[in-house]
Amino acid sequence: MRVKVTYVGHSCFLFEGSEKIIIDPFISGNPNTEIKPDEIDCNYILVTHGHADHLGDAIGISKNCGATIIAPYELATYCQMQGAKNVHPMYIGGSFRFTDNLKIKFTIAHHGSAAMGETITYTGNPVGMLIELDEKTIYHAGDTGLFSDMKLIGELNQIDLALLPIGDNFTMGPEDAAYAAGLLNCKEIIPMHYNTFDVIRQDPLVFKKYVGDSSNVSILSPGQSKTI
User: Fold this and answer.
1) Chain-centre distance for alpha carbon 165
2) Would you say the C-alpha torsion 133, 152, 177, 92 has a positive or negative sign?
3) What CATH number labels 4-227?
4) Residues with Cβ < 8 Å from 162, sequence gap 6 or more?
5) Per the confidence metrics, is the pTM higher than 0.90?
6) Does residue 167 sit in helix, strand or coil?
7) Per residue in 100-149, pLDDT tens?
8) Cβ–Cβ under 8 Å, residues 53 and 11
9) What are the residues whose beta carbons fall under 8 Å from the beta carbon of 206, sequence distance 6 or more?
10) Average per-residue pLDDT in the chain?
């Protein structure tokens, strides 16, 4: 079965197959996203860490449509404390089969994680995610720097699509992300986490040039989709 992948913007993607899944739904306040949170109807909401540009509208969407939030344990608990009724906590290295056609595994990500408002709430370790949906494997790296165990992730999984941050400053830049692509040995890549704010302004064509012929790079604008 084919999976439709829609780039919502920043690090947010919508996956549509036998299940409908959204990851890191930073929609409200995202200057590059036109869709509204109340237009989202999905089965699962994946959240890689607690920063506002990733947790985003997850709690509100979950309350609205009843979707299950899948997140690191502390972050899932935080979402529950904020009124989300359906949460599924996990930890790095753990996997869970949610349906016959959907399995999620958490990987490491080198970053931070906190919900920051009037106070700062620790929300556990940040993660990347391996999403097995309808016999397709998608790796969403989350916010991360380059790390050598990406090679292990690539050796243990046949990755059909890797979603890699290229914005620099807070995550990998284009050159490190291209090196990561080589370690992951992935078939296809969509760059993410760039051009939302001035501090992460990047040209994705530079990233594509660094990758060369080792993987196919698809550059999507917010709202555009591709099928894998």
Assistant:
1) 9
2) positive
3) 3.60.15.10
4) 138, 139, 141, 180, 181, 184, 186, 188, 189, 190, 215
5) yes
6) coil
7) 999 999 999 999 999 988 899 999 999 999 999 999 999 999 999 999 99
8) yes
9) 174
10) 97
**CA distances, 54 to each of 149, 160, 210 (Å):** 23, 23, 27
pLDDT confidence band for 91 (50 / 70 / 90): very high
- The secondary structure element, H or E, covering residue 101 is none
Q: Are the CB atoms for 124 and 111 separated by under 8 Å? A: no
Q: Is 176 helix (H, G, I), strand (E, B) or coil?
A: helix
The tokens of 158 are what? Answer: 């046949």
Distance separating alpha carbons of residues 54 and 26, to the nearest angstrom: 5
- Quote the percentage of the chain above a pLDDT of 90: 96
To which H or E segment does residue 193 belong? none
Q: Which amino acid is it at 123? A: T
Q: Report the distance separating Cα 100 and Cα 82, nearest Å.
A: 30
Domain boundaries, the chain: 4-227
Q: Please report how the helices 58-65 and 73-81 are oriented relative to each other, as an axis angle in degrees rounded to 10.
A: 60
- Which residues, in sequence order, are bridge partners of residue 133? 102, 136
Secondary structure letter of residue 11 according to DSSP = T
Residue found by looking up tokens 């807070």 in the block = 170
Structure tokens at 33: 């996203």
Confidence check: pLDDT of 34 > 90: no
